[in-house]
Amino acid sequence: MVRLDGNAIGGLLHEVFGADMTDAEATCATCGATSTVAEAAVYLRGPGTVVRCRTCSGVLMVISQIRGVNCVDVRGLTALDPRQGAR
Amino acid sequence: MERTAVRGRLTWQVATVASVRTETDSVRTLGLEVPGWPGHRAGQHLDVRLTAEDGYRAERSYSIATAGGEPVAITVERLDDGEVSPYLTGELRAGDQLELRGPIGRWFVWDPSDGGPLLLVAGGSGVVPLRAILRHRQRSGSNVPVRLLYSSRTLADVIYHRELDQYRGGAQVSYTLTRSQPPGWTGYSGRVDAAMLAEIAWPASQHPLAFVCGPTSFVEAVAEQLVALGYPAGRVKTERFGGT
Lengths: 87, 244
Known about the structure:
By secondary structure, chain A is mainly beta. Chain A has one helix and eight strands; from the N terminus they run E-H-E-E-E-E-E-E-E.
């Protein structure tokens, strides 16, 4: 499966969080590494969209659409911080 | 699900194809009329959604090819086994409609205030958002020095060739052709490698800002080589695209 990055789910994340999240900082619950969402590894074509940590490849987020509703599993994140003063 | 537009929300809307331009044998640029478009920044993308008669939907992201302030356009490469790109490049005509949402992304974007010098490295249709950055720099009168290294299979596959060749002065464009080179070719040949980047990339001591866009393997190889040349990872912005 092609590994993309967080830019590819900019629209989906905007739909889920109500704001652009590509420049948000994500902290991995597995290894503690912090990185920009745009740099996370993203797999689009599974049963859901899987977002993985680039440092340890632990799962950060899984987003699945069930009957038109986005179900979002963020147990792999300890923090998701939109950039301060972001436009 | 249909819903009313909420401020700040990203909503699907209907756009009209205003123009179709052939760039190469497999690449078209679609000029789009999007009612109420809020404007976009160089490097952003939008999502396109196609709905089949049976309700099946396919969504894809496409980089916006134009500078902020210019009409919206996307440049699409036809992938023969794709679900969306054959329709966008082969079927759509001026006056047709399609669903989109955007603009999307505020990380892979460049504004003159972000400074430079700028290094842009493109693999194939990864040149699209970098073209938007070049146009934005030009239109805004920025004097930030910029170099574009554009890797393409053959000369005939180079998108925006004539336009890119017109850049002078502070904007330098170099090509490398990976599959075949025409007789007398004076540009680079072969894949982007450490030696090529060492020649073209601004020295790390100048605190350059790099944007790399292309297929995943291309982007990761280039980003790794730039870091090896001393670029801090935080100054190398990457955007990967896949082949469907």
